[in-house]
Specification:
The chain is an alpha+beta fold. About 35% of the residues lie in helices and about 20% in strands. The protein contains 10 helices and 18 strands. It has a 4-stranded antiparallel β-sheet, with no helix packed on it. Strands 15-16-18-17 form a 4-stranded mixed β-sheet. The chain has a 3-stranded antiparallel β-sheet with strand order 1-3-6, with no helix packed on it.
Length: about 475
């Protein structure tokens, strides 16, 4: 009986120890400590303990999301940790807090992975802790938040510029404020101001001289945008009337090209580079207003390569950069990109700014052939046309007429307005901003009047036939 009793007690003790051991997590996470509330690159701190006799590979993911607004930046960083059996280790994972006011959620998630190169799976998650952070708006900052500040298409969503304070910083630098003055008004450490200005300098959007930091691109204030909007309406009215008047001559050119056998009479003949002329909406929007007139107005004889040597997922366009105050009413909604190849070219055009899904690819590959790698969101996939410039240019000339003198006069009027607001020259960025707004209003007016009919989703790709 005594032996049975001893065995019973031993079994009970074994079960209790096994139960306690089973309840103990394989990895213990200590209290997470965050640095004082501030923007920029920082580190969290906490302890990890491996309670097993196995090597552990862990991935720490930190996500930051701000409440919805016209600039809702999101950031995600990952750190990989190796824990030896029964090892305890202090870890300091990095995270990047966007320079934005308001409430944000920061979430720390830890995954127990087999290989740190593998995709993270929900089944691997064993720890998650959210933090609610709130960046209060100083009273002196409120005037800078009263009007939306917009940048060029694609640059507008660049991770350097989806930070609200970066745009406020642009306005302050435009006013001539020093780093110390900006720091005092915004009530932030001057190191943060230097960090953000450093991004501008690095990307050639600002330069430093003996007087401080100066922007290399135009900032169009609300008053200037309002004054320029009147010229936009006048220009778009003239362009609408001219294109409407010339539409019969355009169609006559198409008939002549068909009669001469230069283009097919079948509008569905995809490989014929002249049948694009049957589709007036993309022709007027992408080829006439941008490939022809837009180039004449912005760069004159030079190709209008806005995204040259960059890519849409991290657009860097110092020659075409601008910032404008006042919101969507003072901005065009069209997207245009031109890329030359050997003996040919490709054009992307949209009557709205497309959503691009960015993928991690080889950087040099993107630099060489970024347009071939553009990955549109499904609802923005463009319709493709072949273009024969020998057939298209006479038709565009008939549609636009003798546009050169009018564009030259428009340039003089725009410069007169810009000069009143302190711009000593009318650079590509300023002209690009103006032309996008003028082209947008022209296409809208032509569509509203029934001269042309919108086709598909408004996104098009033109591939020139090789010579």
């Amino acid at each position: 009986m005594r032996i049975i009793a001893v065995m019973t007690v031993f079994c009970l003790l074994f079960c209790i120890v096994a139960s306690i051991s089973a309840q103990e997590p394989e990895v213990t996470v200590g209290e997470i400590t965050l640095p004082p509330l501030q923007w920029g690159k920082q580190q969290a701190a906490f302890e990890l303990t491996n309670n097993t006799d196995m090597l552990k590979f862990l991935t720490i993911k930190i996500e930051i999301r701000f409440a919805a607004s016209y600039l809702p930046p999101q950031r995600e960083t990952t750190d990989h940790i190796i824990l030896n059996p029964f090892e305890s280790k202090m870890v300091n994972p990095y995270f990047d807090m966007p320079a934005k006011y308001g409430q944000s959620e920061m979430k720390v998630t830890i995954y127990d992975v087999v290989d740190t190169l593998d995709a993270l799976l929900p089944s691997q998650k064993f720890f998650e802790q959210p933090f609610i952070l709130n960046f209060r708006v100083p009273d002196q900052i409120f005037p800078y938040r009263s009007e939306k500040i917009t940048l060029p298409p694609m640059v507008d969503v660049h991770p350097d510029f989806d930070q609200e304070f970066m745009r406020i910083l642009i306005m302050m630098l435009n006013e001539g404020k020093s780093v110390s003055e900006i720091s005092e008004v915004a009530r932030i450490d001057s190191a943060v101001v230097f960090q953000l200005i450093g991004l501008l300098v690095k990307e050639q959007y600002a330069r430093q001289d003996s007087n401080g930091y100066n922007l290399t691109f135009p900032v169009i204030t609300l008053a200037e945008a309002q004054a320029t909007r009147e010229l936009v309406e006048s220009v778009s009215d003239t362009l609408t009337a001219k294109i409407t008047q010339n539409m019969p001559a355009y169609r006559s050119i198409i008939d002549s090209l068909v009669a001469a056998g230069s283009i097919s009479a079948d509008s569905n003949e995809f490989l014929d580079g002249g049948t694009v002329l049957y589709y007036t909406y993309p022709v007027v929007g992408g080829l006439l207003l941008w490939f022809d007139m837009g180039q004449q107005f912005i760069t004159r004889t030079a190709p209008l390569m806005i995204y040259d040597n960059t890519d849409l997922c991290k657009a860097h366009i110092p020659y075409y950069m601008y910032a404008v105050e006042g919101g969507d009413v003072f901005n065009g909604s069209q997207f245009y990109a031109f890329a030359p190849y050997a003996r040919t070219f490709r054009i992307l055009f949209g009557d709205s700014i497309p959503e691009i899904r960015c993928k991690v690819v080889d950087y040099l590959q993107k630099q060489r052939n970024w347009m071939a790698l553009v990955n549109y969101a499904e609802e923005y996939r463009p319709e493709t046309f072949m273009v024969d410039t020998l057939a298209v240019k006479p038709a565009l000339a008939a549609l636009g007429g003798d546009i050169g003198p009018f564009l030259a006069d428009t340039y003089k009027k725009l410069f007169s307005i810009a000069d009143r607001y302190g711009h000593y020259k009318l650079g590509f960025g300023h002209r690009y901003w103006f032309w996008n707004l003028a082209a947008t209003r022209t296409l809208e007016k032509l569509t509203d009047s029934g001269v042309i009919v919108r086709q598909g989703n408004g996104q098009y790709r033109f591939d020139a036939k090789a010579k």
